[in-house]
Amino acid sequence: MKSLNKSEIVKLLPHREPMLLIDELYDIEILKSATAVVNVKKNSFFVQGHFPDNPVMPGVLIVESFGQAAAALTAHGLDKSTYANKLVFLMGVEKARFRNPVVPDCKLILKIEAIRSHGRVWKYKGEAFVNEIKMADAIWSATIVDKK
Q1: What is the reported pTM?
Q2: Any catalytic annotation for residue 50?
């Protein structure tokens, strides 16, 4: 099973700092599943305002992290000519649960799985953990579109 570091992820996704949230993708089963790492730091861009005295990673950024991990998994597995000049866009979040707050100075581990694909539409599910404690889970869908 292959792993991707941040510089390899940058080649697959259009996201850049500060919005590139995933730092590593490993345990990759092509087009099926992977594990991603998000290093949540004291100087992460959201900490200053969410919330200054009690910083918490916003749930929407956890969902964004799931989406980025899924997009990287998909882009990595597709033939480069199929993915050239394409973007992966989030279509919908069917279910998201936030079970525990994610605070700075932790390693957020995302376990994601592609549930199904139909043409350019993919459905995924994921779970987020810190120190083996479930922090969140979600089911979402995304589509691959032409860059414009």
Answers
A1: 0.95
A2: yes
